[in-house]
Amino acid sequence: MSIWGKLFSAVKGHVNTAAENIQDSNLMVILEQEIREAKEAIAKAKDERARMTANRVLKERSVAELESEVHRRTDAARTAKSTGDEVLAVEIIESILKLKEKSISEQDLADQYKATEEKMDASIRQSQSRIENLNRKIESAKATEALIHAQKASSTSTVASNGKLASAVDSLDRLEQRQAHQQAMLEAAEQEARVDSGADLEEKIKRLERPGQGDVQKLLEAL
To answer: Pairing with 193, which of 106, 113, 121, 211 sits 20 to 30 Å away (CA)?
Structure first.
């Protein structure tokens, strides 16, 4: 299978969803390796195209030189004929025919090289476009993968945070209940101590002797 065949077999279905391409942890490695191989193939194709270009230039240069020689010998044949040397004129014309035949052959080769160049240019452009497109898809898949990992991490952190928060709230409720219970026990113990010491009774007697300044009714009755 060609490089492009393997490459696009590997990414079959990629356009449907980027998530499908990141399920296999080895897929990205395979794709990147295929792209490297494709780039190497393109580099070799460019070298071959350069060779075709060089050959075409050489053939076109040969054709130009042959045509120039044809013109020079044609002038020479006219001169030989005008001077009455028809034997020389015929000999020159025969050489001209051979030069033209060679020129046509060289031009045919130049045309073939040019056609090959054009086909290779089109193929290289298409291959480069495919690689660029595939690189965009891979970058998109990588970004999607990173986003999915981030979302998973965020979701896990949120769940863990919520769990810790709920546990902390429960602990705080238990602490408050324990503190309220302890406070009630202290107040009861203090009250019991006051009763045992008589302080509670003495407090009641003092309130009878000196009504509270804020008790307006009692102050009124004391007048």
So the answer is: 211
